[in-house]
Design brief:
Helix content of chain B: 10-25%
CATH superfamily of chain B: Beta-grasp domain
Function (chain A): Catalyzes the rearrangement of 1-deoxy-D-xylulose 5-phosphate (DXP) to produce the thiazole phosphate moiety of thiamine. Sulfur is provided by the thiocarboxylate moiety of the carrier protein ThiS. In vitro, sulfur can be provided by H(2)S.
Shape of chain A: globular
Number of strands of chain A: 10
Oligomer: heterodimer
CATH architecture of chain A: Alpha-Beta Barrel
Subunit structure (chain A): Homotetramer. Forms heterodimers with either ThiH or ThiS.
CATH topology of chain B: Ubiquitin-like (UB roll)
CATH topology of chain A: TIM Barrel
Largest interface: A-B, 37 and 26 residues
Structural class of chain A: alpha/beta
Radius of gyration of chain A: 20 Å
Strand content of chain B: 35-45%
Catalytic activity (chain A): [ThiS sulfur-carrier protein]-C-terminal-Gly-aminoethanethioate + 2-iminoacetate + 1-deoxy-D-xylulose 5-phosphate = [ThiS sulfur-carrier protein]-C-terminal Gly-Gly + 2-[(2R,5Z)-2-carboxy-4-methylthiazol-5(2H)-ylidene]ethyl phosphate + 2 H2O + H(+)
Order of helices and strands of chain A: EEEHEHEHEHEHEHEHEHH
Structural class of chain B: mainly beta
Number of domains of chain A: 1
CATH architecture of chain B: Roll
Largest sheet of chain B: 5 strands, mixed
Distance between the termini of chain B: 38 Å
Pfam family, one (chain A): ThiG
Protein name (chain A): Thiazole synthase
Strand order of the largest sheet of chain A: 5-4-3-10-9
Largest sheet of chain A: 5 strands, parallel
Strand content of chain A: 5-15%
Number of strands of chain B: 5
Shape of chain B: globular
Number of helices of chain B: 1
Order of helices and strands of chain B: EEHEEE
Radius of gyration of chain B: 11 Å
Amino acid sequence: MLFYGTRLSSPLMLGTAQYPSPEILAAAVREAEAGVITVSLRREAAGQRAGQAFWSLIRELGVPVLPNTAGCHTVKEAVTTAHMAREVFETDWIKLEVIGESDTLQPDVFGLVEAARILSSEGFRVFPYTTEDLVVAERLLAAGCEVLMPWGAPIGSGKGLNNVFGLRALRAHFPGTPLVVDAGIGLPSHAAQALELGYDAVLINTAVAKAGNPVAMARAFRLAVEAGNLAYGADPMEARDMAAPSTPLLGRPMLG
Amino acid sequence: MKILINDEAYTVTAGTLAALVAELGFSDARIATAINGEFVPGPAREHHILVEGMRVEIVAPMQGG
């Protein structure tokens, strides 16, 4: 699946926040063989230049970057942040977040659609962080989005895919649209499940960064998305309610 | 002249946003700027005259999810 005309080297998108050190972040990105890394913008203090050091690290990694609008609660904030991100990171890709509720960090889908329309009309390639709602998805596509990023569960919760039915329905309704499960994935098995459902990618951050061994966990996620992707392509069997013997009954000896 | 840079009060001598960025040592840095909540692209900074009480934002790449 192409993401705005670009084929990713891996279905694993990796966030860059919350790692114990820049060295561990770099090692995790390499071990994950991430197809994309997400980045953000924050205030730069004149004396510290922390952002400049981070920028050098990102360039050395050589992985495509997807800037986000994390923390934005209004359309205006998100649109302005996107403009700033485009200049800083020299990409028109933007992971659009318009947060609507502070406990769940769930998107304000109304503001999201409006911001997506503005940014798409300005030439941005919008990756909207959304819910699994089909109607919102339709509106996002109508607004110019060519990728959808529904949540699995609230950001940082690690709860996995809370609404498998909804995610499956989204996949079925939009067979030609790249779909990414963003947020809520806590374990490699969650990521594998998303790929098994036919999702094109997953975006992971906290599950790797906050693991006791982030580099080992990055590898586990790499293997999980590979397994999930292979499984989907191999056309999994249908689940059924009743048992069905796998060993043939024919030829069974009469021993009773 | 007193202005706010990233929500902190500064007294600056620079007359334009471009001069302020240079004064802060960011001429060659990877940053983006805004004045009073409006994005100001790099090439436009020299056209933005600083006035008392302006709110300047300077952002740079940072870790994100």
